Amino acid sequence: MRRKLILIFLSLGILFILIGILIFPKNNSNNKFLKSSILNSISSTPQIINSSPSAIISKNLRKEFVSEVFDGDTIKTQDGEIIRYLGINSPEKTDPFFFQALEKNKALVLGKEVFLEPDITQKDRYQRSLYYVYLGSTFVNLEIVKNGLAVSQTLPPDVKYQDKILEAQRQARQNCLGLWKGLCENSKPACIKISNINFDAKGNDNTNKNGEWIEIKNTCSNNVSMNDWILKDSSASNKYTFTNFSLNSNSIVDLYSGCGQNSDNKLYWVCPEQKYAVWNNSGDHAYLYNEKGELVSDLEY
Predict the structure, then answer these.
(1) Which domains can be identified in the chain, with CATH numbers?
(2) How far apart are the C-alpha atoms of 240 and 39, rounded to whole Å?
(3) Residues of the chain predicted below pLDDT 50
């Protein structure tokens, strides 16, 4: 009896195998459905590799379709959400290399699905959502900095990948790419330099803005007109334009962050004073551009 049962089960097994061989190859719709299900499952999982700092599959990432690109670091999703890239700052509309950064960002993400990774802070002061952005294996924030079309913007506590971004910036600077090109090819004398930044005022920086200042030095043997030159920090909000000013030979001018009376060796950012001080105590980057938009000098701390 036991032997008969074994033979019956073996016969049924062989029969099912034969039925499967005969039926499933012809059932293309089932095969297509199965294949589609597998592919959809794979495509919906963010594969963060190579350029990605984490080089892992993360379940924390959101998938969004990019419907509009505003500049080198800001996009809009199909649902109307404004996304600001974390850790970087690209040129504003009136800045050199704005259009190059815009076109690079468009080429990377416009009309495509990207994955969004958060850090600590969810929104900036303009209520834009803050994310690291990935396109396949490309870490978009990093890619734009690598091409010299954005600079590192270190804003604690959102510093998850700042070491990677700073390294990309160093490489772009060393290779004179994009924003850094002027350091290699500017037509102005190399004797105009940012020589020092006193970034930490006594007490509250925001109520003692003239307690912080930046020094610019002219080591030339002649005076240099700085009319229409621009000094800015690593943010998009702090920018100073020199007006009717020449820096005397072998002299230093101090540019204070508050309000005051300008002179040959002392300049003041704005009157009336803005709400916040200019230079971040946790670290910042100063950039000095000539009237042609060429980067003449920079200083990071």
Answers:
(1) 62-180 (2.40.50.90), 185-300 (2.60.40.1260)
(2) 53
(3) 24-57
